[in-house]
Amino acid sequence: MNRRKILVAGAAAAATQTVVAATGCKAEGGTTAAAHVGSGTEVSSFADAVGHCIEEGEICLTHCLRRLSEGDKSLGACAVRVREMLAVCGSTQTLALSQSSFLSAATALCVEVCDACRIECDKHAHHHDECRACADACRAVIAAAKSGA
Q1: Which of 89, 147, 15 is nearest to 7 (CA)?
Q2: Residue-averaged pLDDT of the chain
Q3: C-alpha span between 127 and 121 (Å, rounded)
Q4: Cα–Cα distance list, 12 to 6, 8, 25 (Å)
């Protein structure tokens, strides 16, 4: 790494620390900063389910990409669906945490995309724990959305 890259990386880290300190955002006890809103208000069970789905999706996508790089093309469609789910769940979680007026529309899309991801991951769940966990997390998002949480 050259000196310029080191300086840029250091400046970025310092800026991030400044923003985190100024806003009071921090991870506590192994939870993500997204697990709390503002002054300690807890997020809904829906936002929690979406956050868990994102975590499991990242693990599943990493597994799929690793297998694809090893020549196993059977997880290609799974990787595509998980990537879509991650994009939609990420924005839906942001809208949920900010109590956006667009949350109901985002939730409907989130349920549709999570269902498609669940269907694809279920195809591989008997061979891949990562796919099973992702499918289960998608089920939890769908259930939380339907319960009105």
Answers
A1: 15
A2: 78
A3: 10
A4: 10, 6, 17
Radius of gyration of the CA atoms of the chain, in A? 18
Give the whole-angstrom CA distance, residue 132 versus residue 111: 18
DSSP E strands, 38-93: 41-42
* Confidence band, pLDDT 50/70/90 cuts, at residue 141: very high
Q: Whole-model pTM?
A: 0.70
Residue 29 predicted with pLDDT over 80:
no
Residues 6+ apart with CB under 8 A from 21: none
Tokens 């990493």 appear where? Answer: 62
Name the 3-class secondary structure at 36: strand
What is the identity of the amino acid at 117? C
Q: What distances in angstroms separate CA 9 from CA 2, 5, 6, 19, one per listed residue? A: 11, 6, 5, 15
